[in-house]
Amino acid sequence: MRKVRGIIALVLALSLAGICAYAVYGYLNRPRAKPAPAPVKAEKPPPPPEKKFSQHIEPGMRAVTLSLDATAGIPHELASGDRVDVLAVTPAPDLPEGRIARQLLAGVRVMAVEEASQNKGRKARERTVTLTVTPEQAAVLATADPAAKLRLVLRNPEDNDSVDPRAMAFAPAMGIGTFQPQPRDLETLIAPGMRAVTLEISPTDGVGGIFRPGDRVDIIVTCPWGNISLQSQNQPGEQAVLRETHRNARIMLQDIRVVATNRSLAWSSDPSQAAGRVTLEVTPQDAERLTVLADSKKGRNIIRLVSRNSSDRQRVATRGAELLDLLSERRPYKRVDMIRGPLRKDQTFYR
């Protein structure tokens, strides 16, 4: 009985061992599933290279940077993309403390604005503004920048109207007015065969010293002259005595055209101001006469300009005016040339 049980137990053990062996064999020899491939991470494209500042300039355009102070009219809100007009302020010619404002550029685009730096709690007085301009406009700014004070005027970006304002001028004694440069072309000022002579005048010449180009004038010269008497025969070192002095005024030239004045060749908002110098158109012979008279002012010669009607072209013959004739009843009745050796004088006799 015991042997039967032992045999049965042995058979069961062997059966279980075979089953386990077969299970292990089947597990080890079964086909293994391939591992799923790991997900491939998408590679990010490299960032594009950052554009240089010059690459932001449109083709055919140029960038100009201006260093402007706080008085240049730069709005605090000025930013890239705004459009501005550029004005230039320069000294006015022949006018003390005078200034002229001209528009150089209109509607140029602002490319960049450098913010004012902080310095001890105060904003810097200078700011730099970069403008996009054409090559011609860049040349204009390069020419005007050293000599002028530039100002920026902000305008609406959609305002495309092209306005060419006139240059404006200011002087403390004259106020504000439109600046109109005067012509200085000698081909139009002086006729062929004529000469231009400039004389200093006084406020009592003409009509209150007011002359304009195209006016017609007569020239009156007043000069002293006198008789000299020698004490004896002409000897070396002999002294002479001035016996009498006369003053004579005479019209030397008539119907002379005024070419220009110091007021007409410079800006002036008030044309009624008296001139200090007058340029006359004369013949070469008359230019010699005026030159010798003007250079003899130290001898107390006086040259005066008398205004006349521009349509009055008639010439009048006059004998001149003598001061002695106006103040005295004596009248000269004879003049004699008196010759003493190498000396010669004109003796006038009165009655």
- Major beta sheet, specifics? 7 strands, antiparallel
Q: In angstroms, what separates the terminal alpha carbons?
A: 207 Å
Shape: rod-shaped
Mean pLDDT: 76
Poorly predicted regions: 118-123
Helix content percent band: 10-25%
Q: Helix count?
A: 5
Protein described:
The longest helix has 28 residues, at 2-29. The model is unreliable at 118-123 (pLDDT under 50). The protein has five helices and 17 strands. By secondary structure, it is an alpha+beta fold.
Topology overview:
Blueprint: H1 2-29, E1 62-69, E2 83-91, E3 99-113, E4 118-119, E5 122-123, E6 126-133, H2 135-144, E7 149-155, E8 168-171, E9 175-178, H3 186-189, E10 195-200, E11 216-230, E12 240-261, E13 277-282, H4 284-294, E14 302-308, E15 321-322, H5 323-327, E16 332-340, E17 343-350
Antiparallel strand pairs: 1-6, 2-3, 2-7, 3-6, 3-8, 4-5, 8-9, 10-13, 11-12, 11-14, 12-13, 12-15, 16-17
In summary, what is this structure?
With 351 residues, this protein is an alpha+beta fold.
Descriptive key words:
351 residues; alpha+beta; 2 domains; 7-stranded antiparallel beta sheet; 6-stranded antiparallel beta sheet; 17 strands; 17% helix
